[in-house]
Design brief:
The chain is mainly β and about 650 residues long. It contains one helix and 49 strands.
Length: about 650
């Protein structure tokens, strides 16, 4: 009966996922470095420019943060926070760190342009532990520290880094538990930072060597975030280890110990600065051959880690230089690796590895390549999370949908908001959109090529095209109505047996889930059936079944003397429902709703049905009429479609 069948398929969501892969620089969060005694570099123009306007005066851990355009926002030595004008930020002093802590860290809170978390660690597992402070730049671009020294762990190593969650929005903060000679540790703590703040309950991984270091050394990540490297100093406990990192769960696994495979005659090699090459296949490390304080050679090593096997990695070792003191070593936004030039604690130059993806001396190591205009370096360089160098690799997935359903395209702008300048959706049917989360309804079934294009802040365009299938609704074969005699059965043929069916009501049916149920009703009844295709698309149809006495089986033949005109549609805006019934016979004219309820009856051939009478306008829909010609015992049955 209901020929404009209504889909009841659920709304389908198409989710756009941004996947980070090592490639060109899009984010410029790390363009400006401040470190050591008033030393600095600016990578905004591609190659580093020496700057000396910073306020750092510290031995080790520092961190800086720029906006997506590479303009300085804030920087810290773990104890003091400076704003972009190089003044101490409001309430930005007295953070729980030390001038001799190896690493500190700044990360931007997910889905916020103005909130930054600063992680400070006490030196050598001190009782200050791990704390975070929160800087807010929303009301004043110079910012203020609105939370300070929120303790999240009692005692820890001097090392900390961060990795993007699998959803490319949230951030994992990774650090290591405190260890001493008498109380070694193999425990990592991994905290999750979301748009709602930091979860104080960490994911714990007990994995790797139980080392006895008091804390010196670094944590760093590969560009894809899937590998963590950790170094530790001091003889007898110095290690260099690799771990797999699960960006979905925050768990570390599969430890690969490198340092145990290259013990020298002077003792086990301790390791301080480490960094990955841009392609994540090489690992650079600055080590010593004895204790930190003994004036023995420090060595600059390159390891090939493309095969995760301890012996293979150890055998790939290439000694690039001999230094005097340890140094942080860091992959920079220009794709090169930087560290203290001479290895002296108060060096005034940086050394550069120009081609860090290349093997051995082909990496083009240049000692004392950059003079810092009289500024001095001690041990530390800014702590950089290398996934901020990545470009977005765009992708979207979808379920195929039904004609008439609204398809919601969801673009998680939060995960790449600093990269994206504009978006363009091409839905494949001539329709376009440019908002982050458009909705689209296709007018026709079929297969459509949907393309999303993303224009980034370096004026690159990334596009992907995938097919979306829009399915037809299942078709019903039911007539509008049938008439049967008492005690007679009828087959209700609704269509293809490959679809699924559900009939309502189930009264008088032999199978309410069949495509062709048999009905034996004893009076008028209206049936409704929901038909669902193998693709999950559904439609609803109905049929009116009228039961007449056997001797009153209707003869609907109209003689020449009779004129009977019954309109099959009725717009209530134009008054009453007019019929033309010109016959000598007495009659009864009846109108039923779709539930079989009698809503109008008359024996007057001239009386018209007024669906608006009594201010009770009937609903739009299909109604059954019946004309009973009493003398000839004929019944004339049909349907009326009502419009309001």
């Amino acid at each position: 009966m209901i020929k404009n069948r209504t889909s009841i398929c659920a709304r389908v969501t198409i989710i756009l996922i941004i996947v980070a892969i090592p490639s060109i620089l899009l984010s410029q969060y790390d363009n400006i470095w401040h470190f050591g005694d008033y030393a600095g570099l600016d990578f905004s123009n591609g190659s580093p420019t020496v700057i000396n306007d910073g306020r750092t005066n510290t031995q080790e851990g520092v961190a800086t943060m720029c906006d997506s355009k590479g303009e300085l926002l804030l920087y810290t030595d773990g104890s003091t926070v400076w704003n972009r004008n190089h003044f101490t930020m409001a309430n930005g002093w007295g953070l729980n760190s030390s001038f001799s802590t190896t690493q500190t860290l700044i990360v931007k809170q997910p889905c916020s342009d103005n909130i930054f978390y600063i992680f400070s660690l006490d030196a050598q597992g001190g009782s200050k532990g791990i704390n975070y402070s929160v800087a807010d730049l929303s009301n004043n671009s110079l910012g203020s520290v609105i939370q300070k020294n929120v303790k999240i762990w009692d005692r820890a190593q001097e090392k900390i880094t961060a990795v993007k969650h699998e959803n490319n929005k949230d951030i994992w903060i990774i650090t290591h538990d405190h260890a001493t000679i008498t109380d070694p540790s193999d425990t990592f703590m991994v905290f999750l930072l979301t748009a709602n703040g930091l979860n104080p309950d960490p994911v714990i991984s007990t994995v790797g060597k139980r080392f006895r270091s008091q804390g010196m050394g670094t944590l760093t990540t590969s560009s894809d975030g899937n590998t963590i490297a950790m170094s530790n100093m001091f003889s007898g406990s110095g290690t260099l280890e690799l771990f797999d990192f699960d960006r979905l769960t925050g768990k570390l696994s599969n430890p690969t110990i490198v340092s145990n495979n290259f013990i020298t005659s002077q003792g086990e090699i301790g390791c301080y600065g480490i960094t990955f090459s841009p392609d994540d296949k090489k690992l650079y490390a600055i080590t010593n051959a004895s204790t930190f304080y003994t004036p023995t050679p420090y060595l600059l090593f390159q390891f090939d880690i493309s095969i995760r096997d301890s012996a293979t990695i150890a055998n790939s070792k290439v000694t690039l230089d001999t230094l005097t003191k340890p140094s942080a070593i860091q992959l920079a936004p220009d794709g090169k690796v930087y560290f203290t030039g001479s290895g002296l604690v108060n060096s005034d130059s940086l050394s550069v590895i120009h081609n860090p993806n290349a093997s051995g001396f082909a990496c083009n190591y240049q000692k004392n390549a950059i003079y810092l205009n009289g500024a001095k370096i001690r041990l530390g360089l800014p702590n950089i999370t290398h996934w901020t160098f990545n470009q977005p690799d765009i992708d979207f997935t979808s379920n195929d949908v039904c004609i008439g359903d609204s398809v919601n395209f969801e673009f998680d702008l939060c995960s790449v908001e600093d990269f994206v300048v504009s978006l363009k959706w091409d839905f494949g049917d001539g329709s376009m959109d440019s908002i982050a989360s458009p909705a689209h309804i296709y007018a026709y079934s079929g297969t459509y090529d949907v393309q999303l294009s993303v224009i980034t802040n370096v004026n690159d365009t990334f596009s992907i095209t995938k097919q979306v299938i829009i399915y037809d609704l299942p078709v019903s074969l039911l007539p509008d109505s049938i008439t049967i005699s008492e005690n007679e059965s009828a087959i209700l043929n609704a269509g293809n047996a490959s679809n699924s069916y559900q009939w309502f009501p189930s009264d008088f049916l032999d199978d309410a889930s069949s495509n062709m149920p048999v009905t034996t009703p004893n009076s008028f009844i209206a049936y409704y059936v929901t038909i669902t295709s193998s693709e999950g698309c559904s439609s609803i149809d109905s049929i009116f079944v009228t039961v007449v006495e056997e001797e009153d089986t209707p003869n609907t033949e109209i003689t020449e003397e009779e004129v009977i005109f019954i309109p099959n549609a009725y717009n209530t805006s134009y008054g009453s429902y007019h019929t033309t019934i010109n016959t000598d016979e007495n009659l009864t004219f009846k109108v039923f709703d779709r539930n079989g309820k009698l809503i109008f009856t008359t024996n007057d051939k001239k009386e018209y049905w007024n669906a608006n009478s009594g201010n009770r306008e009937v609903n739009q829909g299909v109604y059954l009429y019946e004309i009973q010609l009493l003398e000839s015992k004929r019944n004339i049955i049909g349907t009326i479609t009502v419009f309001n």
